[in-house]
Amino acid sequence: MPLLSEINWSYYAKYPFVASAREIIVEHNFTLFNILNDVPEVLENVEKNLDLILEDIDSFASKELGKGATEFLSYSVQNALVSFINDKWFIQRYAEAFAKRTRMSIKKEKDSKIIELIAELGAKIEPEDTEPTTWKMKVIDYLKYLSEIRIPLKDVKLKHNMEKKWKLVNRRVGDGYVRNLDGRELHQIFEEVLRKWITKRISRIIGEMEETDLPKLLIEKGLEFKAKINDFKKERKIGEYYTGNVYNEAFPGCINKLYNDILAGRNLSNDERLVIEFFLLSIGFKKDELLKLFAHSPDFKADKSEYFIEHALKKEYYSFGCKSLRTKGFCYISPSVDLYNWCSEGKIKNPVNFFRRMVWMLEKIIFPHFISILLQFFFYPFFPIRKAAPPLVKYLKMTRGKQKSKKTGK
Predict the structure, then answer these.
(1) Whole-angstrom Cα distance, residue 332 to residue 256?
(2) pLDDT at 147 over 80
(3) Is residue 30 a contact partner of residue 73, using CB atoms and an 8 Å limit?
C-alpha cells in the first residue's frame, strides 16, 4: 500500500474512476465521514463544482483542477451527493460535464494510455494487426457506446457530416469489429464511454445507498442543492416545471420516445434532434416552444438551438418519413401508443400523418365516447357491447378501406 505522500494525486484527480483509485479509497479508509471531518476543503470544492455544472457545463469542463488530493476526494463526495439528490435530469448533466472535462485531460496522453483508460471503463479497443497506428472495436461495443454520439459544432452541415461518419453503415466492418479507428476518434470514444459509465455508476450507488450511510452535513448540503436544482428548472421551465403546450397523446411511438427522452434529460444525437425538431415544426410548433423543450438537454445552449431552429424554418424542412426513420434506426413501435396498429401494419408513411389521424380520433371519438370505450375494452368478454362506440368502429373500417384502395391502386 503506497503512503499518502507517495500517491500521484494529480493523476487521480484527472482519472478518479480507475481501479487503483478505488483501492486507495479502501486501503486508506477514505469514508465519506472521514473525508468531511479531516479534509473540510473537499466539501467547499464539491459545492463549487456542482454549482458550475448546474449553471454552465462548459465552464466546469474548462475549469482548472484544484489541489490533487482535494479534487480526487471530491469525486467520491460528488457521486454520493448527486446520488442522494437523485434527479434524473441533473444526473445526465453531471455525467456529461464530467466526461467533457476528463476528455480535456487526455489531450496530451498517448493513444496507448487512452486505450488503457477506456479498458478501465469496461470497453475494449485493440490495435489493428496490419496498421499499428489504427484501432478496432467490437461491433457490439461500438453500438452500445456510440449509437447516440453527438459532435458539438454550430455548423449544421459539418456537424451532420461528422456525426454521419460514426454511423455503423459508414464504417469499415470486418470479423465482428469496426476497423480503422484513428487516434483522434479515440478521444470521442473515450468521452462517450465515460459518460455512460458515470450514469450507470450513479444508478448503482442510488440502488445501494441508505440515508444512514451519509453524514448529516452531506444530507443537509444535498437538500440545499436539490432546492437549487428545482429553482434552476423552475426558472427555465424544464423537467416537472415544463409548461409547453404539447399534444403528446397523439404522438407516434418514435416521436413519443424522443420526447420523453428529452424530458428525462437525455442528450439526443444530432439526428434524433432533427427528427423531433422537424416533426414538431411540421405540426405547427413555434421557435419559442421548441427552445423550451430543448432546454431539458444537459448541453443546451440557447444561441445554438435557436440557430438550428431558424435554419430549419428558413429551409422549410418537413418531418422525416417512416422509411427514413427505419433506415436511421429510429422507428419505434409501442403497443401502448399504436393502439390501432397503424404503424405495425404499415398504414402510416409519415409521423405527421399518425399525429393528425390520432388527434382526430381523440377529439372526435375517444374523448367524447371515453366511458363507452372503457366498457368496450374491459367488459366485452362478458357483454358484447362493441356497438357502444359506433363512430370508432366506423372510422377504423373507413381507414382500412382507404389503405387497401391505395395498396391495390383502386
Answers:
(1) 9
(2) no
(3) yes
Alpha-carbon gap, residue 85 to 46, rounded angstroms: 14
Contacts with 210 (C-beta within 8 Å, 6 or more apart), sequence order: none
Position 376 scores a pLDDT of 57
Helix axes 216-236, 41-55, angle to 10 degrees: 10
Cα separation, 344 vs 249, in Å, equals 18
- Between the alpha carbon of residue 56 and those of residues 5, 61, 159, 299, the distances in Å are 35, 9, 22, 8
For residue range 284-338, what is the model confidence (pLDDT) as tens digits? 888 888 988 888 888 788 888 898 899 999 988 999 999 999 887 888 888 888 8
Please indicate whether residue 379 or residue 342 has the higher confidence score (pLDDT): 342
Tell the residue number behind the cell numbers 413555434, with chain if given. Answer: 286
Residue 173 contacts residue 225 (beta carbons within 8 Å): no
Full 3-state SS string of the chain: CCCHHHCCHHHHHHCCCCHHHHHHHHHCCCCHHHHHHHCCHHHHHHHHHHHHHHHCHHHHHHCCCCCHHHHHHHHHHHHHHHHHHCCHHHHHHHHHHHHHHHHHHCCCCCHHHHHHHHHHCCCCEEECCCCCCCEEEEHHHHHHHHCCCCCCCCCHHHHHHHHHCCCHHHCCEECCEEEEECHHHHHHHHHHHHHHHHHHHHHHHHHHCCHHHCCHHHHHHHHHHHHHHHHHHHHHCCHHHCCCCCCHHHCCHHHHHHHHHHHCCCCCCHHHHHHHHHHHHHCCCCHHHHHHHHCCCCCCCHHHHHHHHHHHHHHCCCCCCHHHHHHHCCCCCCCCCCCCCCCCCCCCCCHHHHHHHHHHHHHHHHCCCHHHHHHHHHHCCCCCCHHHCHHHHHHHHHHHHHHHHHHHCC
Cβ 90 vs Cβ 96: under 8 Å: no
Based on the number of CB atoms within 10 Å of its own CB, is 35 exposed (0-12), middle (13-18) or buried (19 or more)? Answer: buried
Paired with 181 in beta bridges are: 135
Average pLDDT, the chain: 82
Query: What is this structure's pTM?
Result: 0.73
Q: Picking from 70-84, 113-127, 142-156, which range would have the lowest pLDDT averaged per residue?
A: 142-156
What is the rounded distance in angstroms from the CA atom of residue 279 to the CA atom of residue 325? Answer: 12
CA–CA separation, 292 and 277 (whole Å): 12
